[in-house]
Amino acid sequence: MITREIGQTGISVNAIGLGCMGLSEFYGPATEKSEAIGLLHKAIDLGVNHFDTAEMYGMGANEALLGEAFAGKRDKVVIATKFGPLRDKSTGEFVGIDGSEANARRAVEESLSLLKTDYIDLYYMHRMDQSRPIEETVGAMAKLVEEGKIRAIGLSEASAETLKRASAVHPIAALQSEYSIFSRDIEAAQLPTLNEIGASLVAYSPLGRGMLTGRFTAENRPADFRSGDYQPRFADGAYEANLALVEEIKSIADGLKVEAAQIALRWVLNRGDNILTIPGTTKLANLQVNLGSGEIELSDAQMATLNALADKVQGARYNEQGMASIDA
């Protein structure tokens, strides 16, 4: 197991955590509750102690699931959750982003209640509220730290400039952003800034929303939110071209007698000692594969082959609307 600290908080976690979103929404129907709780309990048994959720995942259902699963196990887990994006309770439609102090306080109280805990280890602004200065939002979050409701502050998909401004108000423990062999746009500005301010990167979708696992084919395409226009890399044409790139990852995996997913996760972990990952899964077998990536070693030549793939990827990581909400 690879253990790394979240920023400079003193909170140490397994560098391979668990993104819990897919247990409740987006990747098909919600996992049956007893099955989901069983997976979360097994994850703890296997050494996972960093669990990532958000207010918007299932509109509270995901946090409630973790709250029930972690009853009596709070000392074994580090819980990260997020606020900011707002959804219509009746339709699920996204209706805006609110980084105000009033919304931060409403959201944290609801999360604490659903999670059945009196503190949150890592609390993120999920997307930046571009209608107000980041100093206002982080200032409100800093008050929650002072009150003991949260232990550390994070931002998700923030720009380097936002990170710097935020860290001048209160230490920022982590940036959560998509980062994988296929998604490396944060390397130019955000990663150097994280080193400068002493923060960690928590990499979500380190497996490219499943594409880097090698399990998809032209005939076996995901039939969920990835099949719409929200994920251009899964669109006709781009999908097939990107699968061809995955074959290069699978070739390295075959040579080492491991899984493509393990190669993809090991690549991310090799990119910096302050990088953590939160691959999501609903299946125990996949969780076990992911955790095994910590035992793999990649040569300089193998890393170079993987490094070259990002420039060949077709399609942005979100559609135009989604891209407008990142690097903000």
Account of the protein in words:
The structure is a single chain. The chain is of the alpha/beta class and 328 residues long. The protein has a single domain, classed as Alpha-Beta Barrel (TIM Barrel), CATH 3.20.20. The chain contains eleven helices and twelve strands. It has helices at residues 33-45, 61-69, 101-115, 134-146, 160-167, 190-197, 238-256, 260-270, 284-292, 300-307, 320-323; strands at residues 3-5, 12-14, 18-19, 50-52, 78-83, 85-87, 94-97, 120-125, 150-156, 172-178, 200-204, 275-277. The strands form three sheets. The protein has an eight-stranded parallel beta sheet with strand order 3-4-5-8-9-10-11-12, with helices on one face. Strands 1-2 form a two-stranded antiparallel sheet. Helix 1 crosses helix 2 and helix 2 crosses helix 3. The mean pLDDT is 96.
Topology:
Elements: E1 3-5, E2 12-14, E3 18-19, H1 33-45, E4 50-52, H2 61-69, E5 78-83, E6 85-87, E7 94-97, H3 101-115, E8 120-125, H4 134-146, E9 150-156, H5 160-167, E10 172-178, H6 190-197, E11 200-204, H7 238-256, H8 260-270, E12 275-277, H9 284-292, H10 300-307, H11 320-323
Parallel strand pairs: 3-4, 4-5, 5-8, 8-9, 9-10, 10-11, 11-12
Antiparallel strand pairs: 1-2, 6-7
Helix pairs in contact: 1-2, 2-3, 5-6, 7-8
